């Protein structure tokens, strides 16, 4: 195959970019989902607690 | 003359139907696997076919295989910016809250794909033209597009009041859309080192089917991948804004005194 280093560099850059963007988005989504679920659970619990003066 | 405000209102109500964050989260969660898995399959099929089975070019040799990465990246760089401009329009005309969040998330992904387009173009240019870079109309207009993306990312975060950042970035996104036809027609309007488009909407493609098919597959794969990443990031942004709202709610003791 001619021009192999150029081809490897192009495909390598594309693979690195795809991995960074997709893993970054997946981790961010997972973190946000877990934090939101925890917060909503806490909120629901405190809303359900009867008021004690 | 009264038809036009009615049309604007009708279009606005259509878009506002999908402005509800809860509805978007449900729709996004349902869409996500339908974007992600086909994106992986199409990209692997297109790049694998392009790398191992498509023929080498009689003139360019195997360096033509860079096309299967470069062309989809170039199409998405312009397509992503068109999406950004659409978000700008939705934000300025209809104050669509999701459009602002989507614009924040499209910017960095679009900048990355434009950087990939410039880098792979440069890598392809070195063996073919004998240089990494020329101040050619096509290359320069894509570099301007990259700076527009960077400007958008910087501007949207430049204000203490996020709403002012969204408005300013929306205006930049709309004004910057002028660069899109310049990119598209640069190879026709000016005498450039960059080759003319091989695929056009009006004419038959000037490349053989053995190259066109893998290119089509990788373009579909890249486009679905771009959409999957933007949807995932926008879903995360909606959840983060809900988290901020919950944390600052008076029940939790947050917010202004």
UniProtKB/TrEMBL annotation, chain B:
How is this protein positioned relative to the membrane? Multi-pass membrane protein
Q: Which PANTHER family match?
A: CYTOCHROME B_B6 PROTEIN-RELATED, HEME EXPORTER PROTEIN C
> Where is the protein localized?
Cell inner membrane; Membrane
Indicate yes or no for the key word Disulfide bond. no
This protein's record includes keyword Cell membrane: yes
Q: Which family does it belong to?
A: Belongs to the CcmC/CycZ/HelC family.
Q: Where are the transmembrane segments?
A: 34-53, 73-94, 106-125, 137-156, 168-191, 211-232
Cytochrome c assembly protein domain location: 11-194
Q: Which UniProt keywords apply?
A: Cell inner membrane, Cell membrane, Cytochrome c-type biogenesis, Membrane, Transmembrane, Transmembrane helix, Transport
Function recorded in the entry? Required for the export of heme to the periplasm for the biogenesis of c-type cytochromes.
Please identify the protein, giving its name as recorded: Heme exporter protein C
One function term, GO molecular function aspect = heme binding
A GO BP term here is: cytochrome complex assembly
The family database entries (InterPro entries) matched by this protein are listed as:
Cyt_c_assembly (IPR002541), Cyt_c_biogenesis_CcmC (IPR003557), Cyt_c_biogenesis_CcsA/CcmC (IPR045062)
Tell me the organism: Acetobacter okinawensis
């Amino acid at each position: 195959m001619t021009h192999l280093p150029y081809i490897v560099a192009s495909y390598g850059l594309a693979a690195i970019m795809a991995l960074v963007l997709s893993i970054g988005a997946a981790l961010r989504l997972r973190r946000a989902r877990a934090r939101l679920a925890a917060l909503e659970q806490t909120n629901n619990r405190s809303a359900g607690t009867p008021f004690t003066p | 003359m009264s038809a036009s405000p009615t049309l604007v209102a009708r279009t606005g109500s259509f878009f506002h139907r999908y402005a509800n964050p809860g509805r978007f989260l449900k729709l996004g969660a349902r869409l996500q696997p339908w974007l992600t898995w086909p994106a992986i399959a199409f990209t692997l099929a297109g790049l694998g076919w392009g790398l191992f089975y498509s023929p080498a070019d009689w003139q360019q040799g195997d360096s033509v295989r860079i096309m299967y990465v470069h062309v989809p990246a170039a199409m998405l760089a312009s397509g992503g910016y068109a999406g950004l401009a659409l978000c700008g329009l939705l934000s300025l005309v209809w104050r669509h809250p999701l459009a602002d969040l989507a614009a924040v998330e499209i910017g960095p992904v679009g900048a990355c794909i434009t950087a990939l387009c410039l880098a792979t173009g440069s890598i392809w240019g070195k063996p073919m033209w004998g240089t990494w870079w020329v101040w050619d109309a096509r290359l320069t207009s894509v570099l301007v597009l990259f700076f527009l993306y960077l400007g958008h990312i910087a501007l949207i975060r430049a204000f203490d009041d996020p709403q002012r950042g969204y408005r300013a970035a929306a205006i930049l996104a709309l004004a910057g859309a002028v660069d899109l036809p310049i990119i598209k027609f640069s190879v026709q309007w000016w005498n450039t080192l960059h080759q003319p488009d091989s695929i056009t909407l009006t004419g038959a493609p000037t490349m053989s089917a053995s190259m066109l098919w893998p290119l089509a597959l990788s373009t579909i794969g890249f486009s679905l991948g771009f959409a999957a990443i933007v949807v995932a990031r926008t879903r995360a942004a909606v959840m983060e804004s809900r988290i901020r709202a919950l944390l600052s709610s008076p029940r939790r003791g947050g917010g202004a005194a």
